[in-house]
Amino acid sequence: MRKPSETLKFWQKPLFTITLGGRTFSPSIVPTLVFLLLLPVLLRLGVWQLDRAEEKRQLIRDLEKQSQAEALPLVTALKQEKPDMMPVTSEGQLISNVTLVTDNQNKNGRLGYEVYGLWQAKNFNKPIIISRGWLPRKDFYQKVPEIPEFEGNTVEGSLYYSKGHNPVVANNAVWQQFEDVWLIGQFDFQTLAEKVKQMGYDSAPFIIRLKADDRSEFVRQWELIASPPEKHIAYAIQWFAMALALVLLFIILNLKRVKNNESTSS
């Protein structure tokens, strides 16, 4: 049976030795195994993020093409295979007692609010959450924005389907009521829908983001996706940088200067 000291020496024994001038590169078994296990993982994560970036680019191209199409009646648009971001028109009326506002919404470096209403469309059985757009925060002390009156019995905008539930927002959602306006700190579609349901309305599984209008006080500049390709590129660079750091660390830790007595004995 091998003694513990012999076992330790076995794991510390160099797998190979390469002489490089006055230094030797002689990695032992344990750090080599760790290196060989970690490096492919880091590289694969970097490649995966690059793939995700390309997927996002393609998604943006598809959504841009979709968003530039001619507006269809709501019921017609919903029959399409992929109605997300499709321009629509809808006749109906605004449900006046439902106004939701999300705080801390940034536009061009300025904080403000996004204002939501509830729209009852003709020939559609469920009310629809509509985003009326963004309003700037006037000052630090302003709690809710001054919301312009809604006019008309027709809305035109684009369909927006949720890209995923945000459990952090949902689990920490704290609604504040200011007269007939309900305010929450951040946006999460499911959280909005649940609040609307508490108010007695079972809303549709999408939002209509109203079309930009120069005559309106609302700013309506909609992002096609929340996480752009550049974010995945940044993540990929981080993973590749970690892989490079691992390679350099592996080399530095296993590169040793040859001692004089060792070179003489050899």
TrEMBL record:
The keyword Transmembrane applies. Pfam families: SURF1 (PF02104). Keywords: Cell membrane, Membrane, Transmembrane, Transmembrane helix. It is a multi-pass membrane protein. InterPro entries: Surf1/Shy1 (IPR002994), Surf1/Surf4 (IPR045214). It is found in: Cell membrane; Membrane. The chain crosses the membrane at residues 29-47, 233-253. The keyword Transmembrane applies. Belongs to the SURF1 family. PANTHER family: SURFEIT LOCUS PROTEIN, SURFEIT LOCUS PROTEIN 1. This is SURF1-like protein.
